[in-house]
Amino acid sequence: MSRPTDRQKDLTRRDLFRRAACAAVSSVAIASAVRDLRLINAAAADSLPAGATDYKALVCIFMFGGNDANNFLVPTENTSTGYQAYTAARQNLSIPVASLLPIAPLVSDGHSYGLHPSCPEIASLFNSGKLAILPNVGTLDCGPIGQYKIGDVKLFKDADVYLVRLKEGFLAMSRWCTHMNGRIIWNREHWRFQCPYHHATFDRRGDLTGGQPDIDALRLYGVSFSTEGHVLVDTSSVTHRSCFQPGQAARPGSPAPGATIDS
Ligand code: FES
């Protein structure tokens, strides 16, 4: 690794967080590299035999002050989207790749990863299939309300969220297709979201417009608005819906309706 420049030497962990208006957005390169890890150990849970009776617990730890997630889980392959992106973003805070504790996901997303060297117990739990890592979850600050015109569609790539402003209000939609979880893309020329896997298309409200019969509208995240007038998207839970209803759109200045669930 090259020697840090003077500017890099001045970067402290506190500076890094201060520069980050929203961790889910500012940690662009790293978060992008790890986004698919949410699928990894979840696959193990899906493969449990029917009727399994052994006890399981979900342990949630809320950390005041946050967790330096990008130094906890680090992409280790030497590519421009892997360790090179990590060192470029973290500068003098980056951890030498040789110090990272390798983990072995049950399902590969094409990347390799390591954990912070102070976390051997966590690495052991992960490698024994007793722990999963769920990145990119939390509140996404999408910026000032006023920057969105009716009809605008904006991608927040690292959170896999499309934010759309309709005349009814804001919708935050999951980027994962409701057919078989292909990653959709917005085609500006055709005013459609398109799934490259089996060609489903969706309009800006997330309703199916073609390519597949009878699949649900794109899933929603809750939208609220900060006192500073920013659009906030809660990516910690997703709501399924069969089709768009006006009440699903969140309007600034009124109680955030979130998404309604229909059958
Ligand atoms: S996964 Fe999107 S159409 Fe099949």
Protein described:
It is a single chain. The chain is an alpha+beta fold and 263 residues long. The chain folds into 2 domains: 6-127, no CATH class; 139-248, Rieske [2Fe-2S] iron-sulphur domain (Rieske Iron-sulfur Protein), CATH 2.102.10.10. The chain is 18% helix and 22% strand. It is built from 8 helices and 13 strands. The protein has helices spanning 6-10, 13-19, 23-26, 28-34, 42-46, 69-72, 83-90, 120-127; strands at 73-75, 101-103, 113-115, 139-144, 153-156, 161-166, 169-174, 185-187, 192-194, 201-202, 208-210, 220-225, 230-239. The strands form 3 sheets. It has a 6-stranded antiparallel beta sheet. Strand 8 (185-187) and strand 9 (192-194) form a beta hairpin. The longest helix has 8 residues, at 83-90. The N and C termini lie far apart (55 Å). The structure holds FE2/S2 (inorganic) cluster. The site of FE2/S2 (inorganic) cluster (FES) has 9 residues, from loops.
